[in-house]
Design brief:
Layout: H1 2-21, H2 25-41, E1 48-49, H3 51-60, E2 66-69, H4 73-78, E3 85-86, H5 95-98, E4 107-111, H6 116-127, E5 131-135, H7 138-145, E6 149-151, E7 160-162, E8 168-169
Parallel strand pairs: 1-5, 2-3, 2-4, 4-5
Antiparallel strand pairs: 6-7, 7-8
Helix pairs in contact: 1-6, 2-6
Length: about 170
């Protein structure tokens, strides 16, 4: 329940940042238009990508997504998608975090534990003009479909990739 409250708070921060950045009605109207356009393009459906699709793109070097993991740093360190950026949901919509995201229009793949929190972040990012996608079933889906994840913090060297026959030092 606490995670849900944190996630809802982060989403309200996103919309608060929109209002703060432009107190005018024009700014609010632009955010509403971005969100409406996003859901019109997606026909109101959440854009979902399977772990196997993402993994195949990574293996072929043709991955089109910037992977953003919205879980806590502690959960991220236990195992994450290779190359993922950790921006927990409670800080995702802060200016310093948004600066780390790709330019608006480039696809972002959101990841959490089960898919719930990433879906909550999708609406906020869409309202800001980003092109968010979600990983089907989050890390549960990733672990079930790929058996590959990176353990530890990206600041630690070397990373350990687990799966495909055991730990591999990079």
């Amino acid at each position: 329940m606490r995670k849900l409250a944190v996630a809802l708070g982060a989403l309200s921060l996103a919309f608060g940042a929109l209002a703060e950045g432009s107190a005018s009605a024009a700014g609010d109207a632009e955010a509403r238009k971005l969100l409406a356009d996003f859901f019109l393009r997606t026909k109101g459906m959440t854009r979902v990508v399977s772990a196997s699709q993402v993994w195949e793109g990574m293996q072929s070097g043709k991955s089109k997504y910037r992977v953003v993991d919205v879980r806590s740093p502690e959960d991220f360190e236990k195992g994450h998608v290779p190359g993922a950026l950790n921006l927990p949901l409670d800080v995702l919509f802060r200016p310093a975090s948004l600066e780390q995201l790709p330019v608006a229009g480039d696809p972002i793949l959101l990841v959490c534990h089960s898919g719930h929190m990433e879906s909550m972040a999708l609406g906020g990012l869409a309202a800001l003009g980003y092109e968010p996608w979600v990983l089907r079933f989050g890390m549960i889906g990733w672990n079930a479909e790929t058996k590959v994840k990176v353990a530890g913090s990206p600041k630690q060297e070397p990373d350990v990739v687990r799966g495909l026959g055991g730990p591999i030092e990079k």
